[in-house]
Amino acid sequence: MSGDLGPRVAIWAAEKFVAEKRNCDIWLFGDEGQLKSIYKNSRDPYHQINIVHCTEKVSMDDNPLHVIRHKKSSSMYQSLLALARGEVDAAVSAGNTGALLVMSKHLIETISGIERPAICKSMPVREGQTFMLDLGANINCTPEQLHQFALMASILVDPEKNADQLARVGLLNIGTEHAKGTELLQAAQELFMQEIRFSYAGFIEANQIFSGDLDVIACDGFHGNIALKASEGTARFIGEKIQSAFQGNFLRKLSLLLLWPILRTLRQSLDPAVYNGAILLGLKKPVIKSHGDADKKAFLQAIRVAHEQVLLDIPQKISSCLH
Amino acid sequence: MSGDLGPRVAIWAAEKFVAEKRNCDIWLFGDEGQLKSIYKNSRDPYHQINIVHCTEKVSMDDNPLHVIRHKKSSSMYQSLLALARGEVDAAVSAGNTGALLVMSKHLIETISGIERPAICKSMPVREGQTFMLDLGANINCTPEQLHQFALMASILVDPEKNADQLARVGLLNIGTEHAKGTELLQAAQELFMQEIRFSYAGFIEANQIFSGDLDVIACDGFHGNIALKASEGTARFIGEKIQSAFQGNFLRKLSLLLLWPILRTLRQSLDPAVYNGAILLGLKKPVIKSHGDADKKAFLQAIRVAHEQVLLDIPQKISSCLH
């Protein structure tokens, strides 16, 4: 209900998703009247989409601690309650991140042995993908929590344990030398070096995030959030510069036409929609956070991430790895 | 002596600079034999360039605390000593940042009232420029230090006090709401709100760095370094994607030719060389840190930044503002 573009994005994505996956159902939590005015029976011939009426919604400014007490009829709370009760297998939201986190911790709970869930996202990198976490759930983290984050993400890298190599894990710092950074990072480094379930690749700097040399980058939520948003801001800034470079005279505008196939290649390889859907990793069941301004395609990608988490049974695999 | 591309970059930049500024001298500190083999008398017809022989150099891996005791004959130490003694008016280095900082604090000292120098850089933004600091000198900062950083940079924005408006200052955080972030940022916010020498614009997120809405962005060195390097990494990553999008068939390569003027516009507006030269702000005299991999043009820009700091007498202006 509370993504920047409203529920029509989620409904379009749900319709596309059920057309792809005949063995899946989607439950839409929200204002029934509003949802029904957008939802088309014709696009759901097998009745895979259900609407659960909710009288409230969590807004982007709502205080997380307030909503958990006073907005139990909200679409966010009700969807997570359905997940907790096993009525659905995963939840996806483009709403208030803080509220989603607090409600998820309360209703879904963390896997035994995991102190806190982390926001984990697949980043666009030179080749393959790199999971980065935490991207904003935890301002401060202990060395043990950073270690738990890395371990959880290393399971995402190779859930079926098919690969010969262990996941390569880096720890975000402001230099690559052993002695760099805070005492906390020094202590975390000790834990990472002792770990045999993943391969610790050392401290990394933020300019190495996109190198593709790592499978996992662990950091606290403050640092991860700054790195993620600085990257998003840079990409948008360059995008605007590219657009304005094509403005001006007729020839420049004409060359834009010529360039169409090239720009399409470029856009596809950087499209944020391809990377939408952050996992609240460490919860007993999959909860996926879509970017607030996700468009239809991006929201569909977030649903696919949720589906994959269920198919791969990631929470169970994390639990087995820990015990 | 210890920039990634060696002394020839600095010598070329020095030659260009003295050709531009007939009333300036450049002193080159380093291995005389090596420098003289590159330096051409013909490009310095008025003998504005002097070479000061130094028997050692600080390497990129040298421990800052080690070099300050044991590398007093190094080019870096000797150049800063000449600055301390008033033999030169500013110093520029592309070498080891940590060593430059420690030596500068020791030999040049901070302005009275300033606890620590900060690395401050002009960032490429939508319109105008934004000074961001600290970019890596101080891992942890007190609220008072963050406030000093902001105040110093606000003087850079308008050293002659010509503008009608006060400098707009933002504080880097992971959300824009008042209650967001660490206790330390909450305390810093209180100090910033009370300041009348600049206009506090509130917390900002890292995706707003390039918006051009701010004149100054204050942060601790850890957060600033992550934001800066994440941006650099993103820009390089997108640059590579653009290059590879033009590869493949003949038509794509041909279109690169057509696009040359547009790509040049784009490159100029994003060229890191235009933004090279970070100021170690808060020292009694100007010390400028060039990017280690600066090319000739970028190093020239770092010299220009040093020259401007001297002309505008920034350390004196900061001192007057404080007392």
List the helices and strands and how they pair.
Two copies of one chain form a homodimer.
Chain A: H1 7-20, E1 26-30, H2 32-38, E2 49-53, H3 64-70, H4 75-84, E3 91-93, H5 97-107, E4 118-124, E5 129-133, H6 143-157, E6 168-172, H7 183-194, E7 199-204, E8 216-218, H8 221-245, H9 250-258, H10 260-270, E9 278-281, E10 287-289, H11 296-312, H12 314-322
Helix pairs in contact in A: 1-11, 3-5, 4-5, 6-7, 6-12
Summarize the structure.
The structure is a homodimer of 323-residue chains. By secondary structure, chain A is an alpha/beta fold.
Write up what this structure looks like.
- The structure is a homodimer of 323-residue chains.
- The first copy, chain A, has 323 residues and is α/β, with parallel strands linked by helices.
- Chain A has 2 domains: 157 residues, 3-Layer(aba) Sandwich (Isopropylmalate Dehydrogenase), CATH 3.40.718.10; 124 residues, Isopropylmalate Dehydrogenase, CATH 3.40.718.
- Chain A has 12 helices and 10 strands.
- In chain A, the strands form 2 sheets. The first copy, chain A, has an 8-stranded mixed sheet, with helices on both faces. Chain A has a two-stranded parallel sheet with strand order 1-2.
- In chain A, a hairpin with a 5-residue loop joins strand 9 and strand 10.
- In chain A, helix 1 packs across helix 11, helix 3 packs across helix 5 and helix 6 packs across helix 12.
- Chain A is globular, with a radius of gyration of 21 Å.
- The two termini of chain A are 38 Å apart.
- At the A-B interface, helix 8, helix 9 and helix 10 of A face helix 8, helix 9 and helix 10 of B.
